[in-house]
Amino acid sequence: ESSLKVTGIDFLKSQNTQQHHTDGYNIKNLVVRRGQPFRVQVNLNRELRAADKLSLRFGIGENPLKNKGSLLSLKPEREDFNGWKISVVKKNGKECVLSVTSSPHAAVGKYNLHVKTGTNIYKPENGVIYLLFNPWCEDDVVYMANEAQRKEYVLNDTGYIYVGSAYSIYDRPWNYGQFEEFVLDACMYLLDKSKLSLTDRRDPANVSRAMSALVNANDDSGVLLGNWSGNYISGTSPMDWIGSVTILQKYYKTKKPVRYGQCWVFAGVLNTVMRCLGVPSRCVSTFDAAHDTEENLRVDVYLNERGEKLNSLSLDSVWNFHVWNDVWMKRTDLPDGFSGWQAIDSTPQEQSQGLFQCGPCPVKAVREGDVYLPYDSKFVYAEVNADRVYWVVKKVNGRDKYFKVGTETQAIGRNISTKAVGQNRREDITREYKYPEGSKEERMSMQRAYSFIRPVGMMPRSGYASTVQGLGRSTQPVVPKEQVTKTGLHLEITNTEALHPGNPLEMAITVKTSTPGNWTVDLTGSCQLQYYTGKVQANLGTIKETINLEGTSEMQIPLKIAPDAYMKTLSSLEDEVLILVTAIAEVKETNDKLTKETSMRFEYPPITVQMPETAKLYNDFTCAFLFKNKLNVTLENCKLLVEGLGIFKMTTFDQGDIMPGRIMKSEIICTPTRLGEKKIVAKLISNQIKGISTEKAITIT
Question: What InterPro entries is this protein classified in (predicted)?
Fold first, then answer.
């Protein structure tokens, strides 16, 4: 009687991956999600009999052992083992189809499958099975009930990251590409590198925290090296990426940090990693985000007497925007009510438990002021809730003195944005992070937060200001109030003409009063160029005016900057800059003071993409990119970056200089390799302009 031997295994890849929503992964191996059955067909040398011993063995890690839980030996129809079970679905001569259901709490990672029959062990080729989190499974902690949300937050491999400023929000297309070649392997490499125990690998809270640390290179030679210096000669400028794929592929190949990232690149890559592992994830942009180095819920901004912001004094800063990620999960480690979206952040800002990592922090804890909950909720709370205090630094008898010229309590953490589900538009999710400003709930939440975070008294706290006496911490938490002025003073800053590089920058400061009386207002205004991190790069010009207003009235004061004042700086910088306008108004009669700042983006002519609306699988089509330089300046060293997931790899065209009025045209022959709606993303960069992006969709049939 011959002993039972396995002659082959069929992983029934196409039916399994369709049922598990993993058919997108560009990989030879079987990829399945936990807690859901998949089938394998085992071919034998003879028919399977009742007395035969057959078991499937799943091993994870270097040296799988039963007593460590890293080796699972499953026999058909037997009681489950660690929540896994298998059964024989059908027998047909020498073929036997088995159904395997992993535990919905199984460790995520790569499992080696061997089949044991009696004393024989069969090791199939491509026998490594990738097991992911499962948002479709009700017993998985990442379960998401809504199908449209699962499509967006798990399966969509393209999206937008919102950047710019609160005054002018701009959508930057981003290719996540979680299904592209080597991306899943890169994520598995990161999981191994994280040294998470098998138990920790079951829980998306631990996995997402570990990934927030590994996407930056700071402690562990992770994926991306951050660089905000303006010098990117030894790598790729953060502005030059249009997606995560090139970054993760390069990292997987070299195992060395890729140069360079800034916050939207970190968030784009972390979003790819989390979606790839099966955790619902979204990129979240906060405008006017506080980077408060002392958790005191206050950011101090220092101005000189011309109203220009000073870099040197500030320890903390307000970024025009900051991008992090929300991941969706049930928090089994916390009291009820804190499940759902959790903020994680891989931009290296501050250490948490000794590493540059941040989160997961329950978004509901931020909204309710429960800032004692893990992880890093004080930090995230401060990013969206700090107050901004303005100080003017004046020389008095040769020494610096600080004069407070304004407090803003509602300016930080605005327009919190993410891409809408199933639509190419921005969705404002500020309400998920904060109650409406001034509401009863907001006040209660704030008092709750302030009972865990002790803000310091109202003193300036720059490097120089530590010499000021009386920096003792106030024992009673003070909830600052927005000043109410006797004159009803109000400032507005706008641009009166489109802000095109090469043209004069034409802006205006509108001063309003709304109470009876004659008011003399001293207005100081300044215009500067700054990075999105709030770091000033150039002073462009200032104005000083004294105006008279009566009762309820307003006056518009123009602020105009000639092209010569800024074009040289603009061309020499490697990063995109914003135009910062700051206004200080002081009413002589009442000593009322008010300060306001607004950041604006430059506006650029568009790129257009010409291609058919549909194309057939593996049939070539032509895609053309057109750009007309409608500006008054030559754009030097133009590069066009293009990428289409499932159509063509990232490609760069050098375009040289494009003179005013000239049209650039580039064509690429495309061969679609995947079905469905696919997107082509294009970005033009030059010395003068750091990024004009566009995207266009095509349906592949």
Answer: Ig-like_fold, Ig_E-set, Papain-like_cys_pep_sf, Transglutaminase, Transglutaminase-like, Transglutaminase-like_sf, Transglutaminase_animal, Transglutaminase_AS
**CA separation (Å) from 280 to 248, 273, 327, 345?**
19, 10, 6, 15
Determine the Cα–Cα distance for residues 346 and 264; give it in Å rounded to an integer: 10
pLDDT in tens, 547-563: 999 999 999 999 999 99
In the chain, where the domains are located: 6-132, 147-452, 489-601, 607-700
- Whether 465 has a pLDDT exceeding 60, the answer reads no
Catalytic residue among 137, 263, 358, 638: 263
Count of alpha carbons within 13 Å of 10, Cβ hemisphere only? 9
pLDDT, tens digit (0-9, with 9 covering 90-100), for 634-683: 999 999 999 999 999 999 999 999 999 999 999 999 999 999 999 999 99
Please identify which of the residues 203, 300, 326, 345 carries the catalytic annotation: 345
Domain 147-452 = CATH 3.90.260.10: yes
Q: Which CATH class is domain 607-700?
A: mainly beta
List Cα–Cα distances, 449 to 137, 337, 457, 459, 677, in angstroms: 35, 17, 16, 21, 45
Amino acid at 382: A
Q: How confident is the model at residue 308 (pLDDT cuts 50, 70, 90)?
A: very high
CATH of 489-601, one of 1.10.540.10, 3.40.920.10, 2.60.120.40, 2.60.40.10: 2.60.40.10
Q: Which of 140, 292, 322, 670 is catalytic?
A: 322
Query: What pTM was computed for the model?
Result: 0.95
Cα torsion at 400, 402, 405, 411 (round to 10°)? Answer: 110
* Cα–Cα distance, 581 to 494 (Å, whole number): 9
Burial class (CB in 10 A: 0-12, 13-18, 19+), 25: buried
- Binding residue positions for Ca(2+): 385, 387, 437, 442
* pLDDT tens track for 324-346: 999 999 999 999 999 999 999 99
Active-site residue, 623 included: no
Same-fold call for 147-452 versus 607-700: no
Closest to 4 in 3D by CA, of 52, 57, 56: 52
Instruction: Respond yes or no: is residue 288 known to be catalytic.
Output: no
